[in-house]
Amino acid sequence: MKKIKIKPLALAALLMLANYSYAQDAGVLSDVVVTATTMSSPLIVEMDPKVPRQPLPAHDGADFLKSIPGFNIMRKAGADGEPNFRGMGGSRVNILADDQNIYGGCGQRMDAPTAYIFPEIYDKVTVIKGPQTVLYPGYGSAATVRFEKEQKIYEQLGYDVHASGLVGNFGRHDEVIDANVGDKSYFANFTSSNSSADDYKDGSGQQVHSKYHRYSAGATLGLTPDHNQRFELSAGRSDGYAAYADRSMDGTKFLRENVSGKAQIKNISDLVQKLELQLSRNTIFHTMSEAMRGNPSSYMDVTHDTNAARMVVDLSFSKNTSAKVGLDYSEAIHAGNMPGMGMPNLIDDSKFKNTGLFAEVTKQLSVDQKLIGGYRGDFWSVTDKRSSMSSDTSGQTRNDLTHSAFARLEESLQVISNSIAYVGLGRSERMPDYWELISNRRDGSTNQMSSMSANTHSALNSTKTEKTYQLDSGLIYQSSKFNLSGSLFYNKIKDFILVDSRISPDYVSGVYMTPSSRNIDAHTYGTELSAGYLLSTTLKFNSSLAYVKGRNETDGLPLAQISPLEGRLALNYDDKQYSYGALLRLVAPKNDVAVNQGNISGKDVAKSSGFSVFSLNAGYRPNKKILIAVGVDNLFDKTYAEFISRSGSVITGYTQTTRVNEPGRTTWLKATVAFD
């Protein structure tokens, strides 16, 4: 039997929370465990990251998203997986923390943006499906994910605190605190998180090189001179390490430092309802090293510094017509070193500059109908700052103007009461990112398999912008006993940026086997369905289904990195004091693959078998402020791997697997408290 190792700090936090009692009702904790997340409005999913979830998420933002139908997470080890939505990964899923883009640093995608996010310190996570908004920088063609801090408003001196502690087997423990204090003229917020785990074991008892430790701290100070004005300054820092089972190096530094300033002024005039301004700086310092494998002299550092500015104005043209218009700007500089090859100093290799103008209009056509539409134009400037020995586009600058737009009609149906139907058409144009332009090479050029110089064939000018034309439709229904949300989509993608790693003179080169970025035409289509039925006042059945199909039209192959059909069945009992739940996850086999093709996150490895995973949870609320939850994930200790997992690497002392296997039976206990 696998034992839970309880660290003293985590045990103290659990005991403190479990024995604390409150008389007030504010800050009530709701929902024990989230097993499936449905749309709250057309194409929008909202989640509370402070609620315990099953399966138990890792400390980062990626695993938090896996309970949403359509999302899959690429496993690298115990942490830092990469989110994939509707078969789209990398920059097609736009990740925002307080509406700021966080770019990873590693050229081999060791640190996805979600690696720098601990979800529980945020108040809300919002997912917008497809190209159905133009409001945010980075503009994801597949989805936009916002990790948000909600504004606290105090009329008199007050405070509120969220705190939690978690312990689990494989040495897992988390401690989190999110504290707010303020009155009508000022406020302050302090957050801190600490998360650690040892190597986990898969269902066969094989140990996986996967341990990690991360911590973060942040503070926000603000002034509210009156109800219409708000000014705030924030700063944060996080760092840690993570072992990886899919490559020859580990991540021994994940340092993120952030400062930002915000201003908000409301009710300026009848036309101008609100003005928001934001300035931010995010710096990433990441080290990949063999130190955790006994060779500290082998390492590389990378940095990614991003300065950004944003302005949004809310306009009210009439009772039925409103708009958001704005401007955002960012400048991102990436640098790296290679001490083992005589380059110890950090040297810039690229600069990305972007200026975006956007407008999104909402028109209430009638009591039952609403029309939403928007346009975004982005001017991009990308400079290759590599030396002429490393790149044949050294010193060159590429300029592009990209255009994106959408329109969506929403209607409350008369024929089906308590329902909303929608249909939307979106067109997104995505600029190739750092990994597609700088890390990868262009295809079709002369290959020298044993020569580093073969990697000089730059993709800077050869890789075109990616154009997605997508149709979204769906229905949301809610009654006292039954709820249903369903979405359908179809898209045509012109100049889809495929990362091709097939062993061929056209696709890989150099001692690092650098893959090619190349444009193809493709299409995908699919659906997400979620339904719940209240069997009694305390017993509810939930289910979800996600299906995607994709085709690489240029090569006549399946489109790579498309996850298989997946369904979930959940039964939950909750009498507001005790709760019990069971979750069955079913995943179909995957036979249509494009081996060694994919995106910046990963590539198809091989066909995969189907699997099922059964999990249990229970919760106890001694009062409205405290929630104690316990769970067992993968109850039957199945050995399995996700289809889009990375390949297992040869690591001394560990068994190599085709893919990085998921954890075996995992038992956990979490106590959460909210008080004010």
Structure at a glance:
The chain has 676 residues and is mainly beta.
Notes on the protein architecture:
This protein is mainly beta and 676 residues long. The chain has one domain: Beta Barrel (Maltoporin, Chain A). Helix content is 3%, strand content 53%. The chain is built from three helices and 33 strands. It has helices spanning 8-18, 61-64, 434-439, and strands at residues 44-47, 71-74, 82-85, 93-97, 100-101, 124-129, 143-148, 158-168, 172-182, 186-197, 212-226, 229-242, 250-266, 272-290, 295-316, 321-338, 343-364, 369-384, 397-412, 419-430, 441-442, 466-478, 482-500, 508-509, 514-534, 539-552, 557-558, 566-574, 578-587, 597-598, 611-623, 626-633, 666-675. It has a 22-stranded antiparallel beta barrel. Strands 1-6-7-4-5 form a five-stranded mixed beta sheet, with no helix packed on it. Strands 2-3 form a two-stranded antiparallel ribbon. The radius of gyration is 24 Å and the shape is globular. The two termini are 41 Å apart. Mean pLDDT is 91; it is low at 1-28 and 447-452.
